[in-house]
Amino acid sequence: MVSSEVERIRRLIDGLRRDRRAHPYHGRREYSGLANEVAVACHELIGTEPTAVPALLQRAVERVTATLMYMDDSAGIVGDNLRGLMAVHAHACAVAAPDSKRLAAWLVKLRLDGPGWPDFELRDYTDALGDRGRREIARLLADRAEAVGPGQHGWDEFGIRILREQLAETSGDVDEYVAVLAESLHSATQYLKIVEVLVTADRHADAERWAARGLGQRGIPEDVARLRDTYVDLLLGRGATAEAMDLRRKVFDQYPTRRNYADLRRTASALEQWGELRDTMIERLHGAVAEQSGYVDELIAVLLDEDDLDQAWQVACAHPDSLHESRWHQLIELRRPDRPIEVIAPLQRLIENRLANDRDKYRYDRAIKLLRQLRGAYRAARKPDDFDADKAELRDAHKRKTSLIAKLDRAGF
To answer: Which of 10, 42, 111, 289 is the least buried, fewest Cβ under 10 Å from its Cβ?
Structure first.
């Protein structure tokens, strides 16, 4: 006999069905609230009727997955709800595992036949699947791979690869997991996965070899940096300090960025070698700026990290058009307390640049905000009369912009 609480949750889940003809922007907040209510109710039900929860949540997940195909969720609110439902589902399966073969089939269908969401990890279902469920997933993947055929690219191939990797991860066999990962060495991310699993298994020599192989691979910048950091840690771990420093210096010399500078400084400092290198590395950045103005912001960021505001300001003033406005705002805020007279010219330039930007519908309001900062700088420099002259010159230069003049009047300028 089905309890009244299970019936109530079923009714809530039925409410998650959405007419695809509904406006994609309408009802998102209410829908999100209902999805959250279902997740909370199912989580509470685990304590009293755990065996009923997995099936309820599978139904809810399918409803929300379908809804996201027709609802605008650019803010990610309902997507967060879907991830929450999957988390409760994994917990419920761990408490009261459903039939492992049916669970395996549902997870494979979700990954391979869905629109690309929700995302999940098989490791969260390890206990619920057991050996029987894992074998079923392997069988289903083999059947699907045969149907797709070799060399055919697409969502099926990607989904199969992801599930095979996750399945190998849950096996507990490090060599099997590494072998599956190595089948698709498409980016630094794959090498990083291999290295991390080998490090966890205390197989540092193997991890170092794989990390060295992956150093030249492209990929997500964060993963590329993590792979390099792990390799350096492995080198330092076995006392290969010269190799670690050579790598850090080579990377910085090739790409003299703030991040690579910080990485080099961190490693050199740990080896008590930074004092003799600092000036040489900053000089390298100056050389990069001379070759390519795009490195100006990197040099200024490094100088600020080194608490050398004077040098950072000089570099900025020497390359005024090579910096983003946000960097100028940062520098002005740092410089104004002690040298207010020096920020006047940069503020004047920012105001003119802002007024010249016809694509910014808020340019007048932003120019007035900068004008207030300019007035403050003149006052701090004890030259208020010079600001009045600036203000008059600006009004005269833009007198045909009636909207600007009206805004200046309202702002007291």
So the answer is: 10
